[in-house]
Design brief:
This protein has helices at 4-9, 25-36, 51-54, 57-65, 71-81, 105-121, 141-159, 193-206, 215-226, 233-237, 245-264, 271-274, 277-282, 288-297; strands at 42-47, 85-87, 90-92, 126-130, 133-138, 169-172, 177-179, 182-184, 189-191. It is α+β, with helices and mostly antiparallel strands and 299 residues long. The strands form three sheets. A four-stranded antiparallel sheet has the order 4-5-1-6, with helices on both faces. A hairpin with a 2-residue loop joins strand 4 and strand 5 (133-138).
């Protein structure tokens, strides 16, 4: 990795953001919004079926050997790809795919898909990619459909991959599409409904009525609300260009309702006065809205 990263970093397309130094998911979304303004109003929202599980080893080694001549490095990467997986205590050989979670897998993914980035760029399309998650922006619907054909043919012939027909669509920018956890439309950027529901599912698991409302439970809930310093719910979706203020306030009210139901074993608006917000704050409950404000203020 220390040898290969500097070599390929200068060769990767500028609109590739995944697992690269000083690049992030937010920058990828910002680039999509930037490209949408000057006229790239049609979007190919593409999904590669099982990318890391199905990527051709031959394709990876071909793209790698076009740049790297050192046989020791090439043999080491090939051994990494063919190391196999443990299933039921037995080592099973791997003939396709890269090990998910492997230290070299993100770089190999970028190396393999970099040729797709440049292939589309040369044909007037603008692709924004984060690892295997990407969208292609085009000036017209006809060009977007042509891009779909180009991507399908290129992935199948060169990388041994295919697009998921259920998750791949051509749409207009103002109709919206999903990218990196956001629902993006020309007039707003919001958190995906699926992401909100996943968050609620975690909260429901902690706040069932058979549990006690105590400090230990509040701490478990706070870990879900806060998450990690970089990828936490509040931090990730709280950006200057996203519209999540109302959604955060709504989720805060919903969480407080769940806690009051835990305490009283019922659902009643009367309990809003009996168990006030200041009481929940004294117990240490975090607020998505306040975390968002702190994030935007740079605290």
């Amino acid at each position: 990795m220390q040898i290969l990263n500097p070599i390929f970093e200068v060769k990767l397309h500028d609109h590739s953001y995944g697992f690269r130094p000083e690049r992030s998911c937010h920058q990828a979304v910002e680039k999509v919004l930037e490209l949408g303004r000057p006229g790239y109003r049609y979007v190919l929202d593409a999904d590669i079926a099982g990318f890391f599980d199905n990527l051709s080893h031959q394709a990876v080694m071909r793209e790698l050997s076009d740049v790297v001549a050192d046989g020791n490095i090439l043999r080491l990467v090939e051994k990494f790809l063919r190391a196999g997986v443990m299933e039921g205590g037995q080592v099973q050989p791997t003939r396709v795919g890269t090990p998910q979670g492997g230290v070299a897998s993100p770089l190999l993914a970028n190396i393999a898909l970099n040729v797709l980035d440049w292939h589309l760029h040369e044909r007037g399309c603008r692709l924004v990619r984060y690892a295997d998650d990407f969208v292609v922006l085009c000036p017209s619907e006809h060009e977007a459909k042509e891009a779909l054909t180009l991507v399908q043919r290129f992935l199948e012939n060169r990388l041994g991959l295919r697009l998921s027909p259920e998750k791949t669509t051509v749409t207009r920018f103002h109709e919206g599409f999903a990218f990196l956890g956001f629902d993006i439309k020309s007039r707003f950027v919001r958190r995906r409904a699926k992401s909100v529901e996943n968050f609620k599912t975690k909260v429901r698991g902690i706040t069932t009525r058979c549990h006690n409302l105590d400090a230990e439970m509040i701490e478990k809930l706070n870990r879900v609300i806060r998450g990690t310093a970089i990828r936490g719910t509040a931090n990730y979706f709280a950006t200057p260009w996203s519209h999540c203020g109302d959604a955060y306030r709504s989720l805060d009210r919903w969480i407080r309702m769940r806690l009051r139901c835990m305490k009283t074993k019922r659902k009643s608006k009367v309990d809003n006065a009996r168990i006030r917000l200041k009481h929940l704050k004294r117990m240490g409950l975090l607020s998505l809205s306040e975390l968002r404000k702190a994030c935007l203020d740079g605290s």
